[in-house]
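Repro:
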Amino acid sequence: MHPQRRTALVSVAAAAALVVLKLVTGLASGSLGLVSEALHSGTDLVAALLTFFAVGVAVRPADPGHQYGHGKAEHLAALGEGSILVLASIFIAALALARLTGILEPEVDAAWWTFVVLALVILIDAGRTVVSLRTARRFGSAALQANAIHFGGDLLGSAAVLAGLAAAAGGYPNGDSLAALFVACLVLLAALRLMRRNVDVLMDRAPAEATEAALHAIAGIDPPVDVRRLRMRHAAGRHFADVVVAVAPGAAVGQGHAVADAVEEAVQRALPRSDVVVHVEPGEDEAGIRDRAHAAALTVRSVREVHNVTVLQVGDRTAVSLHLKLPGELPLEQAHAVAEEVERAIAAAVPEVGTVQTHLEPLTETAVGTPAWSEPERDEVVRVVRDATGVPPRSLRFLHTDEGLVAYLTLAVEPAATLAQAHARASEVENAIRTACPRIADVIVHTEP
């Protein structure tokens, strides 16, 4: 027989013996306290029987119809026990109040043998409380823990009845009724606590301490793991954890599996006997973080332009830097406030970013340009482009601006060339024109196949 069921069976036998002993003694002596304790033990007998059968169901392995096991049977039994205890405590309280108010006349015979019986009851209550509590802690059994709470309540109740009988023996008959009322309140409070705790389990309330322990265990994994979600529930001494983690988009299947194994082992070390399911999904690459940071910055009022967004990995943290263009006439204090708002917006939109660094720039005012015809510069630009590419520019025009003469040209590049190659050719032509034509203030090169 499984140790949990053996402990529950011992509780059944003890509860049955106590019911008989308390009831016979209570009726013989007229003690409402002992009768109420007998009723209390009667509910414990029912509770112990429920626990015995519930544990027998709970220890069954998972099957196709109950893929998470049968552990919640214990919590259903504990909820039933709590309901029985609430009804019993109300009945005991009603009888006690009836005696205290004179509706029923207390007739208590506090003979010496009643004290002997109570001493024996207290010894039995203490013994079974300790045994049930130790077994409940060993196996994490909710039903056995419920029994331990009941037996502890019996122990306190028996002590109260002993005090009430002592008062009755000393000439104060209402002492027995007060003891019975105390037992009723004790049972009611214990029942409400028991029901609340087991309702939380049946409703899959997340166990806060276990969740914190799991997160702490995962945080200790080296290299660090990006936890996207952790859901936990508890039943019959076991924790069930569903974890979603992210890995690099380019990671191989074997690497993702290794991360899942590391997470599972870490959680099971922190929470033994836990059932852990790990789902691995691709994390976001640098481009995705950059795009989200850029979009978040543009949501802030007064920001006119965002550029040079850079994403860096600094240790286990992600850092973002960017340039902000704001109106040039904006006071520095206001510009700084806008930058702080941008940093907060990025932190909210991209939680994985640890730090945000902003560089402020004045927004360039719209320049005014007029078409220009510059024959010497035109000939020189055409020569430079022909020397570099073998063909003249497809188009060329000049503008006079406040900054000086600006050249706009279109450069033909091989269709098979990459964007990087086209950019390199454009930069080469631009630098050559600046060297050959110092009077040109700026060169804007457009490339096309």
